[in-house]
């Protein structure tokens, strides 16, 4: 095998094992990150600001997998370079390149939220492991050359298999450790406090009878997830606390036990992502349990010139909204979601929920600090990236069934979906099939203007191709306009429509 080829394999193996080792070490401390995650975090911090026009707010969704793959790809390319240099007799060049990678990774880890000097540990272990494996492979090569031959394919395969097995078991071990079983168990064991008055059970869910219609409450497992977190923060309630600081006369620090000992209440509220396209899935409805935010803020005594409430996440994300939003509406620090403690992906142990505002300006997950400040002093994470400073949720309606592009047989067909406009509520939903005139849809009974409303209509479908459109009227009497407006900078507008074919 050519020395170049062998060098590529050596380099890739050495760096791969090094990365796995770093990953494993990162599992031992909740404020340590694997080098790949730290590098990814920096990309998330800095890149969207540069290319804000092209990066949409859902950087968190599929783009995360893309980002991690991209970093691994680049690192592998560099590692091939390292391996070739090493086997080609340019050891100095190889070690200098490794040093440069370690430097980048080290700087990236020090910039992680909650980082301290010890956060360099995964990087250092990665580096030492990489160098060790590279030298070990080099020695193997020299041995076989001294014996008068060269490393055979068979020997190489054996070496590869050993390193592969070590990596796989190390990464499995790391995974098991980083599930931080204690926190997961702790979350399940939490007995949520009881509200003074439980909300009534909602009326019978029409989704039970209409296949394809979203249920009134979105199950936690199906609830959309949007955030910039490459790895979900693993917070234990034992060392969690919430600070309320900034422009306040009476700064507060509240532990989890203190928070859940306060009066709690339930709120049925639909939250939505500003990046939700017309007809999109980034919206969900839950019964939240939490503590009134206005009470806490009042207790902290904001100074008269404070005009913004900024939530800080454990991982550094921030979201701010006007102090004036607390106009008596049921904004809360939520600790429960649909009868359970907040799921880890949705902000355990606590997050903010403000009815009527998009998530990116309000719904801080893994909340650790609230700061009273001013709009002319501080901006939340997405504001410098091109999104509006103020962002009330716009009225939207969505057709859940029939799905776009489906073929259905003639006869009675249910057209159904959801419409939302928290906190204004939904007063009417209309449906138009083909060129027929708008028909008023049935609306599910709801108990609050903060939730979405399911709607449905029976359609006597005859053979042909149709476009079905929906539009909602909010509680103020404003009808959704047909004019399409893109999601950036403060939410999409326009009617959702689906095309269907009815067969005879
Ligand atoms: N810590 C943190 N909280 C966050 C975000 C984030 O990136 N990090 N994203 C916000 C956005 S943009 C939305 S739409 C909601 C989504 O909440 P969910 O994932 O529970 O549905 O969380 C908000 N809270
Ligand atoms: Mo969002």
TrEMBL record:
Annotated protein name in UniProt: Unannotated protein
Swiss-Prot/TrEMBL keywords: Membrane, Transmembrane, Transmembrane helix
InterPro entries (alphabetical): Ig_E-set, OxRdtase_Mopterin-bd_dom, OxRdtase_Mopterin-bd_sf
Gene Ontology BP term (one): sulfur compound metabolic process
Organism encoding this protein: freshwater metagenome
Keyword Transmembrane helix found: yes
Keyword Membrane part of the UniProt annotation: yes
GO MF, any single term: heme binding
Domain called Oxidoreductase molybdopterin-binding: residue spans: 231-382
Chain segments annotated as transmembrane: 65-82, 94-111
PANTHER family, per database record: SULFITE OXIDASE, MITOCHONDRIAL, SULFITE REDUCTASE
Source lineage: unclassified sequences, metagenomes, ecological metagenomes
């Amino acid at each position: 095998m050519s020395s170049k080829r062998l060098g590529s394999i050596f380099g890739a193996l050495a760096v791969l094992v090094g990365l796995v080792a770093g990953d494993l070490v990162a599992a031992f401390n909740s404020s340590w990150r694997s080098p790949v995650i730290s590098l990814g975090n920096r990309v998330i911090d800095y890149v969207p600001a540069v290319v804000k026009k092209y990066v949409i707010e859902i950087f968190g969704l599929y783009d995360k997998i893309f980002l991690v793959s991209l970093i691994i790809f680049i690192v592998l390319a560099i590692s091939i370079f390292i391996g070739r240099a090493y086997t080609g007799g340019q050891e100095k060049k190889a070690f200098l390149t490794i040093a440069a990678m370690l430097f980048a990774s080290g700087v990236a880890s020090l910039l992680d939220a909650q980082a301290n000097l010890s956060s360099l540990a995964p990087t250092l272990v990665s580096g030492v492991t990489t160098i060790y494996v590279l030298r070990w492979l080099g020695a193997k090569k020299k041995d076989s050359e001294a014996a008068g031959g060269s490393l055979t394919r068979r020997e190489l395969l054996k070496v590869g298999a050993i390193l592969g097995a070590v990596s796989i078991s190390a990464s499995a071990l790391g995974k098991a450790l980083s599930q931080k079983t204690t926190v997961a168990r702790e979350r399940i064991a939490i007995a949520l406090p009881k509200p003074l008055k439980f909300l009534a059970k909602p009326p019978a869910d029409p989704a039970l009878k209409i296949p394809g219609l979203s249920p009134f409450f979105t199950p936690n497992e199906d609830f959309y997830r949007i955030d910039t977190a490459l790895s979900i923060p693993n917070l234990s309630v034992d060392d969690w606390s919430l600070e309320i600081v900034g422009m306040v006369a009476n700064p507060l620090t509240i532990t989890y036990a203190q928070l859940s000992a306060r009066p709690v209440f339930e709120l049925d509220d639909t939250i939505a992502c500003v990046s939700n396209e017309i007809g999109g899935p980034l919206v969900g409805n839950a019964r939240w349990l939490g503590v009134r935010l206005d009470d806490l803020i009042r207790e902290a005594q904001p100074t008269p010139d404070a005009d913004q409430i900024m939530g800080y996440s454990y991982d550094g994300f921030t979201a701010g909204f006007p102090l004036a939003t607390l106009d008596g509406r049921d904004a809360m620090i939520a600790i429960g979601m649909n009868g359970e403690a907040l799921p880890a992906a949705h902000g355990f142990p606590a997050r903010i929920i403000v009815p009527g505002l998009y998530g990116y300006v309000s719904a801080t997950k893994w909340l650790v600090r609230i700061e009273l400040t001013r709009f002319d002093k501080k901006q939340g994470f997405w504001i410098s990236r091109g999104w509006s400073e103020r962002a009330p949720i716009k009225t939207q309606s969505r057709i859940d069934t029939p799905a776009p592009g489906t073929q259905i047989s003639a006869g009675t067909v249910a057209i159904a979906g959801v419409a939302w406009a928290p906190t204004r509520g939904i007063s009417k939903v209309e449906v138009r099939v083909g060129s027929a005139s708008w028909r008023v849809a049935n609306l599910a009974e709801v108990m609050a203007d903060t939730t979405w409303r399911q709607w449905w209509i029976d359609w006597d479908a005859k053979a042909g191709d149709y476009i079905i459109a929906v539009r909602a009227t909010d509680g103020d009497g404003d009808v959704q306009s047909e004019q399409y407006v893109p999601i950036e900078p403060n939410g999409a507008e326009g009617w959702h429509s689906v095309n269907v074919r009815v067969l005879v």
